Amino acid sequence: MASPQQQPMEQTAISGFRTFFGGVSSVSRKAQAIAGEFAKLSEEQLGAGAKAAERLRNAQSLQEVTSIQSELLKESYEATTNHYRKIAELAISTPQELAESAREFASTMAQAGQETAERASDITRRMGEQAAHATEKTGEAAQQAMRGGGRG
């Protein structure tokens, strides 16, 4: 089941697919390949986000949190760039009307991807703040335990 954070992206993707396929009377193999690239990109982004969230949950320092966030952003950018390059190559070789539908679809998906990236960034930032706060509290507790342990 999709999380509340994923639902807007999925709804936009579904709407984009409907618009894309609704405007095309016969979908060519190239159009299907374009749709497949978007599906792969979405799947990879969701998987990478889930893995990063798990790594963030287990992060033990603010430096580790920052490193995980940086890696996620870099990987997301690289994956998006690679998929859009493939999509552009496919779109260029299709008939003009299909290319126009693909551009509209890409624009819709890019906007949804940007919104998702912004939400992911916000979630990651909040998780980093929570991890930093937890690390600080753990350090304080350890210091108190050491002071208390030296008196007993």
Tell me the layout of helices and strands.
Elements: H1 7-22, H2 29-57, H3 62-92, H4 96-151
Helix pairs in contact: 1-4, 2-3, 2-4, 3-4
Describe what this molecule looks like in 3D:
This protein is mainly alpha-helical. The chain contains 4 helices and no strands. The protein has helices at 7-22, 29-57, 62-92, 96-151.
Q: What distinguishing features does this structure have?
A:
152 residues, mainly alpha, 4 helices, elongated
Brief description of this entry?
By secondary structure, the protein is an all-alpha fold.
Tell me the radius of gyration.
22 Å
The main pleated sheet reads as: none
Broad structural category: mainly alpha
Shape by Cα distribution: elongated
Overall pLDDT metric: 76
Indicate the percent of residues in helices: over 70%
Please report which band the strand proportion falls in: under 5%, 5-15%, 15-25%, 25-35%, 35-45% or over 45%: under 5%
- End-to-end C-alpha gap: 52 Å
Q: What is the H/E order?
A: HHHH
